[in-house]
Amino acid sequence: MSDDDFLRVTDVSKWYGDEKVLDEVSFEMDRGDVTVLIGPSGSGKSTMLRCVNRLAEAQEGSILLDGEEVLSPDLDVDELRREVGMVFQGFNLFAHLTAVGNAALGPRRVLGLSESEARERAEAQLERVGLSDQFDSYPAELSGGQQQRVGIARALAMEPKLMLFDEPTSALDPELIGEVLEVMHGLVEEGMTMLVVTHEMSFAREVADEIVFLDDGHVIERGPPEQLFDHPEEERTGRFLERITSHD
């Protein structure tokens, strides 16, 4: 383990009541890495993601982001969320705002940019995700794939140093999944540091520097995609990947 890991998760545990949903989870990432969390539903993947930006509170362990302890009671959580962008399963767009209005809201309200500066930044990020022709469209006028791309642009407009993706394609019709994965491929090529929860195994295999397989709150196995997909060390990993890749 390097002293200069960009994100270092160490022995993180989380309970909801009596249920332990994360059990001493550990992994680390360098800047520019793409780490993909995989596992069956209920394995703790989304909870782990949410602990990184304090949408969920881990009770034990350590999460160091760029040298700062995320779990510290003294941490400025608003500052953390300015630096950590998150794209959710649902699009969570404001229905009364246009695409550019949704993407400009954070830079204007949180970062204090002027209206024109915020719009300029929002337009640049919407162009980045392939929506330069939809600046003034409202969410109801957009497809699910387009809405999710607005969600990605909204997160990017804050210029985060880490992007979290929580099953960003699971609410989409199959024909719309590709356009969102294409945007994510582009971010990978640009060197964005990304922690991703997904069931899209072909995508995970193509882009991940490391895959972390979680089951029942435990890290069962972790390693580069070629190891987990082709030569898993744990029988549980092999069974899961065999089942899920037959549907991918």
TrEMBL record:
Membrane topology, from the record: Peripheral membrane protein
GO cellular component: plasma membrane
Subcellular location: Cell membrane
Pfam family membership, one: ABC_tran
PROSITE patterns: ABC_TRANSPORTER_1 (PS00211), ABC_TRANSPORTER_2 (PS50893)
UniProt keywords, alphabetically: Amino-acid transport, ATP-binding, Cell membrane, Membrane, Nucleotide-binding, Transport
Alphabetized InterPro entries for the sequence: AAA+_ATPase, ABC_ATPase_HisP-typ, ABC_transporter-like_ATP-bd, ABC_transporter-like_CS, MetN_ABC_transporter-like, P-loop_NTPase
Keyword Membrane in annotation: yes
SMART domains: AAA
GO terms of molecular function: ABC-type amino acid transporter activity; ATP binding; ATP hydrolysis activity
Principal place of residence: membrane
CDD domains membership: ABC_HisP_GlnQ
Domain of life: Archaea
Domain ABC transporter: 7-241
Family, per entry: Belongs to the ABC transporter superfamily.
PANTHER family: AMINO ACID IMPORT ATP-BINDING PROTEIN, GLUTAMATE_ASPARTATE IMPORT ATP-BINDING PROTEIN GLTL
Protein name: ABC transporter
Origin species: Halorubrum saccharovorum DSM 1137
